[in-house]
Design brief:
The protein is an alpha/beta fold. It contains six helices and eleven strands. The chain has a seven-stranded mixed beta sheet, with helices on both faces. It has a four-stranded antiparallel beta sheet with strand order 6-7-8-9. The protein is globular and about 55 Å long.
């Protein structure tokens, strides 16, 4: 079994300082999801530190979560309101919850963190299982740009100080639509590596997965502000409904 198959790996590596990173403003997502939920029972897969869930719950939406990383959940619990959100500690692909949900959502490219194609399929099938009649499943993801991975390997210098250097190295498998990334830090204290992988898909490929799971595309936008999705869009927010 590959290290990348461990659903808690990302959180263990990146939970410290995660909220200090370049995460997008959750406001537009919260506005979009609150309107769609309309007060109904809501589930966030890979809830993390509650970047979206906590302000959504503050709007009166009953939010629950699934998260594989104890470290991420600890970060959520440490925030005001985070201790009131029920979270199941598990792999998001299993969607191990009871009852029906009016809204399930998966944001910030996290579907692609399931590096096995079969686990992405499991995730959508299990989402369909827990959706209430008329319920919605929302996916936010980037649109792959082949120009970003025109070589098999890429090396990027991320940070250089007098004490250390941080490098980011990618290895792409374009046929499989996967990549392995290593973030390497070299300092006087030694060398550390943080592996991360993705299995990316184009929007129409996600649509195919959804259809096989019994979900149909109802709406698609370029962003949370409902800008029209076009061939030039570099991201999408897609809303699926039970077929």
């Amino acid at each position: 079994m590959s290290l990348l198959d461990d659903p808690g790996l990302f959180g263990r590596q990146w939970s410290e300082g995660y909220d200090d990173g370049p995460n997008p403003d959750p406001g537009p997502a919260v506005d979009f999801l609150a309107e769609l939920a309309d007060g109904g029972r809501t589930l966030e897969l890979a809830i993390g530190t509650g970047r979206v869930a906590i302000p959504l719950a503050a709007r009166g939406v009953p939010v629950e979560g699934v998260e594989a990383s104890e470290e991420m959940v600890a970060g959520l619990r440490a925030k005001p309101g985070g201790d009131r959100i029920p979270v199941v500690l598990a792999d998001m692909a299993d969607v191990p919850v009871t009852g029906r949900f009016d809204l399930v959502y998966l944001v910030y490219n996290t579907l692609f963190n399931l590096v096995r194609a079969e686990r992405q399929a499991d995730c959508l099938r299990n989402v369909a299982r827990v959706l209430a009649p008329g319920g919605a499943f929302v996916v936010e993801a980037f649109v792959p740009d082949p120009a970003d991975f025109d070589r098999d390997e890429q090396l990027e210098v991320r940070r250089v100080t007098e004490e250390s250097v941080t490098l980011r190295v990618h290895r792409y498998d374009r046929a499989a639509q996967t990549f392995l990334r290593q973030t390497i830090r070299i300092s006087n204290d030694g060398i550390s590596v943080k592996p991360f992988g993705m299995h990316y898909r184009w929007p129409e490929q996600i649509d195919e997965l959804a259809e096989r799971a019994g979900l149909r595309l109802a709406e698609r936008y370029a962003d949370w502000d409902r800008s029209p999705f076009t061939s030039e869009s570099r991201s999408h927010v897609s809303v699926y409904r039970r077929a």
